[in-house]
Amino acid sequence: MLITSLSGESNHSMSQVFRSTRVLTADGLGPATLHVEAGRIAAVQSWDSVPANAAPHDFGDLVLLPGLVDSHVHINEPGRTEWEGFVTATMAAASGGVTTLVDMPLNCVPETTDVAALEAKRAAAQGKTWVDWAAWGGVVRGNSAALPALAATGIPGFKCFLIHSGIDGFAWVDESELRLALPHLKAAGLPLLAHAEVAGPVNAATQALNAAGADWRKYSTYLASRPDAAEVEAITLLIQLAEEFDTPIHIVHLATAQALPIIAAARRRGVPITVETCVQYLWFAAEEIADGATEFKCAPPIRSAANREALRAALQSGLIDLVATDHSPCPPDMKRREEGRWDLAWGGIASLGLALPVMHTALANRGFGIAEAASELAEWMSASPARLAGLSARKGALIPGADADFVLFDPDAHWTVAPEHLHFRHKLSPYLGAELLGKVKETWLHGEQIFSAGSFIGQPRGQELLRP
Ligand SMILES: [Zn+2]
């Protein structure tokens, strides 16, 4: 179901044929032809199954993957569009092969915690989205009565914090608040996404650091201020609630590998708990972060190289379900780069558009060729987040009935991330200067080209997606 109507000139009435020698289908990477009707995939057939009267789009050997789904993006519009907005966020997405993103309910004003706020967001998005999008609602202190009506709007689920979010208008919840909210989510069949850190260990660590006169320019101070225990304690509670209420809870941006054993044990018991980590936790390591380099600040923090290896292994084994960006930018001055004070800088990493080449490079560095990497990348960054958001019928795989959303990826291109590659609003990112293998050449949405060779094609035609 769509709430925005199709607009602009389009190929929707046309039949189209797309082919490459490396298309990711259910059988893996190989030669195939996509037959597209009215913006949706009608059939996936052999490479030479091109009708006599058709002029195929032949992409040669470029890798053709399903469009990525990023289930964790902060767009910040309305209200803080100077941080990031629909136009720039969705252009960044399109440039990286992301054809669907799901917006977080905070950093915008009003925060998306009731129906009126959602309507304000929908109005703000009108005509500005280059890719398809959906909005998570918010569970905050005191809004449980507003949840049924918000759930009925067709949003895919709800997000909450178990610690101060950094935004006063998005109040964190404790166990008693979660006990009020979860029955509403269960009744609606919607998942709860949770920022899994609790305040106790963070406050205790911060007080101890301040008492000892710690230097807040040092990354080690910031890392010590957000200990693994804050995540483990939060995840322990979330597992308990998911089990007791028998309703799905999703842990966003897992950063500590110390929580993996309790997650594994919960999964073995059949607890409906899913886990995401983010590109930054799989790519960077605390040992490599310079003091004062606050463009790396996020919460939970980027932890040690050994921790990174354990997260990678958990992703590979399927214990971690998906990879998102948690793209969360701010105006550059809020990073307080000159002072370099980690306690004063805004937390959030800007990266939208880079996830596919970064994750591909990480796999290539570990010896995985594109034939193996393609299936995993598509599972972690397209199929699995589509399932989380209830969008699997239309997104996440190149299968008949799905939207013809896909990305053409050159896995052999070497390049270095520079400001001109960043299409989000503020060109400040810890990935600047990263040397990557693999580049997005083209992005297609509903059978229409929206990005090619660094340029955007046409006009914003993305639609809001509602949970079926
Ligand atoms: Zn976030």
Structural class determined from secondary elements: alpha/beta
Number of strands: 18
Order of helices and strands: EEEEEEHEHEEHEHEHHHEHEHHEHHEEEE
- How many H/I helices? 12
Outline: globular
- What is the mean predicted local confidence, pLDDT? 95
Can you put this structure into words, describing what you see?
With 468 residues, the protein is an alpha/beta fold. The protein is 29% helix and 22% strand. It contains twelve helices and 18 strands. Strand 16 (435-445) and strand 17 form a beta hairpin. Helix 11 (355-365) crosses helix 12 (370-388). Bound molecules: zinc ion.
Q: What can be said about this structure in brief?
A:
This protein has 468 residues and is α/β, with parallel strands linked by helices. The protein is 29% helix and 22% strand.
Walk me through the topology.
Elements: E1 15-25, E2 28-37, E3 40-45, E4 57-58, E5 63-66, E6 68-73, H1 86-95, E7 98-103, H2 115-125, E8 132-135, E9 137-138, H3 147-151, E10 158-161, H4 175-188, E11 192-195, H5 199-211, H6 219-225, H7 228-245, E12 249-252, H8 260-268, E13 273-278, H9 279-283, H10 305-317, E14 322-324, H11 355-365, H12 370-388, E15 406-416, E16 435-445, E17 448-452, E18 455-456
Parallel strand pairs: 1-4, 1-5, 6-7, 7-8, 9-10, 10-11, 11-12, 12-13, 13-14
Antiparallel strand pairs: 1-2, 2-3, 5-15, 15-16, 16-17, 17-18
Helix pairs in contact: 11-12
The chain binds zinc ion.
